[in-house]
Amino acid sequence: MRKGIAVSPGIAVGTAFCVNKIFIAPAAQPAGTVDIQAELAKYDAARRCAEEDLITLRDRAGDQLGASGAAIFDVHRSILSDTGFLNRVQDGIIEGRLSAQASLHRALDMYSDAFSKLDDRYLRERLTDIRDVVQRIEGHLADVHSALDDDMLSSNPVILVVDELLPSQVVGLGALKIRGIVTQSGSETSHAAIVARSLGIPAVSGVRDILDLVKTGDSLVIDGREGLVIIGPDGETQAAYLKLEREFFDFKDHLAENRDVPALTADGVEIELLANVNSVADAKAAVAMGATGVGLFRTEYLYLTHPTVPCEEEQVEEYVDVIQASPHHRVTIRSLDLGGDKTVPFLGRMHQESNPFMGWRSIRLCFEHPGFLNTQLRAVMRAAAVAEDLGGDVRLMFPMITTLEEICEVRKLVVDSENQLRSEGKRFARVPLGMMLEVPAAAISIESMLDLVDFVSIGSNDLVQYLMAADRDNPKVAHLCQPLAPPVLQVLKTVIRSCLDANKPVTLCGEMAGHTLAYAVLLGMGLRSFSMSPALVPYIKEFARHLSTQTAESILQHALTIRTTLGVRQYLSDELGKLVPDFERFKIT
Description:
This protein is α/β, with parallel strands linked by helices. It has three domains: about 1-20 and about 145-255, Glucose Oxidase, domain 1 (3-Layer(bba) Sandwich), CATH 3.50.30; about 35-140, Enzyme I, Chain A, domain 2 (Orthogonal Bundle), CATH 1.10.274; about 270-585, Alpha-Beta Barrel (TIM Barrel), CATH 3.20.20. About 45% of the residues are buried.
């Protein structure tokens, strides 16, 4: 048994299909035997074929994922035609007298070495895009198809075991018979995790050395609720998990039947279940899962997958696509949240920070680059006019708000953008403005800020790590980063109560919103709006109907008297286990 990160709930039992060699080793050739002109011609032909692939993929991604999903293949085309990249490969053939394939490998090794020395996490991660391009060219040079095109994947449901999923592989994943996914690297925000949740495929990421332990054809069990992978289960274990898998699929079918049923508590109180999305595909998944709107649209994805700064028209198109695809055309758009672990080349070389998550990021970065924010504000307000035509609505919230002065500055910039659009005769709609509450200082002073915002959205992921002074991505301190920690519950109770007393709508849109244990205490605090991964909406909807608001309030009162995180978790598990039939099916913690 191996433990990883639970990224998509469910049980899968099946045969492993391992993709542990992305690249084909070039055949050895005696020195000086390479026909330079022939190898240059082969490389040029393979490059042209690769470009045709990328154009096809871009169009397919546009249909499935929208403009932002398609933009990444324009990035790949820019790598393909990059002069530096081309020169490296040609120099290897001409000067090094290497085959085209061997020269391509040498170029990749040079990029890998250079990127590994970078401090900038975003730039390091762009090596994935270069590997994707190299694999595509190499496939044409060697006249072989991608490992994910194998007949076994097309005909038999398998558990895909990979180091990582490349972007081009992700686009075609929906057409393959994948029962589950296990990745050696990656996290809750990896390509594999996002796609698995969108498709409802059980998945576990970050299972170290799994490709050294598993080979194609091995029996596997994955538990996407607990983040477990069982290799070569015995007959009794396999039978038990097969039963759980059947129950899981039956349960999913049952949940799907309730897609259009209102989300109600046991005492008939209506709750709002919204979805967190990055793209058009996520918005479509939100509709399929029964969400009533989008509570968080992360706009930075458009920037992260774009080769340059996306212009106003490109942003309008992307926002309109997401609005049209979203449930009831209701979308809360978060303004650009770059910095920390998300930087882009067009901002220039980011200065080094010892703690980037608490440094120059998010709204702070936008204040220093007001042109970025102005373009985005204009695009959002223009897209909001389209939403009105569709009978929907758009709200706009700003992340990482820390002080009252920042809210005042944001409101001033919004008014400036409105005046620009009005003077240019461009159609737009005014949008409600909200703050994303992530910083403890804002939580402490929330009452003084409520007069200047139309709504509040609690970003529990960052709020928890800031409160606990623990980086959630650091395994050494991740145990401290617990949303059910007593100090976190006390702060959330204060914030939610302040918003309700001021009659300001409040939503929680972090991972905590989709966790059943957390749902119980949040409901008891008076929260009625939850935004989560689309795949989790049916679980919370079904879970909600077993728990009344009065019972949730009682559970909360007792939970607040418990002094340890472990004690809170154990109490909630025991109490909800008594109240909710088959609680283990719902137990997402």
